[in-house]
Amino acid sequence: MRVFLAVARAESLTGAAPVLRMDPATLARRIGRLERTLGASLFVKSPQGYALTDLGERMRDRAADAETQFNRAIDEGQGASEALTGQIRIGAPDGAANFILPKVCVAIQAANPKLEVQILALPRVVNLSRREADMAVMVSQPVAGRLSVQKITDYQLHLATRRDAPPIRNRDDLRGRPIVGYIPDMIFDKELDYLGDLAAGGVNLASNSVAVQLQMLRHGGVGVVHDFVMPSAPELHQVLRDVFSLRRSFYLVRHSSDRHSDRLTRFSTALMQGMQAEVARLEQRARLTGSTVI
User: Fold this and answer.
1) Helix boundaries (H) for the chain
2) Buried-most residue among 16, 59, 69, 121 (CB within 10 A)?
3) Could you give all domains of the chain from N- to C-terminal order, each with its CATH number?
């Protein structure tokens, strides 16, 4: 079941191999043996990867339910006073994944040495129903699915550009400046559509990655930057704060069937507290180090 679920989620042998700590050839043999036992194909195999058949999709859902029940039994056997163990995977947009979660997760793992924490950074919404992750940080609340949602914290965003760029005192000064932002047709969440009418003339330098956008801004242009990112880019400063200021929120989303998991609840509590503290710390540091220009 573990092998089948890992390959189904990764959609390839090479993607599942590191998760299971097995080589792809071993995984291929295990999948082949399972299919021979069933007398039916679970995957359509191609150079692009392993895609589930209709039967495979039904089996994935049943196997994921069985996995949930098994993990719940393990949780019940782990005393609340004991350190966390096992593997926990968090899905997150790459802004949080790059600039917030690493410090937070390192601290949680240091307090729980037998715990393995994985951060899944994706330019799309993480599919918890397919168990791509145990929980996900999202920038808007999902409206469908058997999910539980908790607000983590608010965060702020402002326009930023290089400190040595020509000054920007009003919107007219933005004319002729290359605009940095998301690839318009790859914005996977409406809360990430930051630019509005500022991008009316088009986005000159675009990426689906916050980290790549930051690198672009380091070399020129104007774009929206999270306040908690500013300490990582001392060559940038914020502009037009009085006319352009955004507030967004992070939410922690879990599958509703995990609400009785003591292990995941303890981890999610530590994760939320850590994210709240880290966002506050970085935003305060941005203000104190002069990243802002009022």
Assistant:
1) 2-10, 13-20, 24-38, 54-77, 94-99, 101-111, 210-218, 262-288
2) 16
3) 1-77 (1.10.10.10), 155-246 (3.40.190.10)
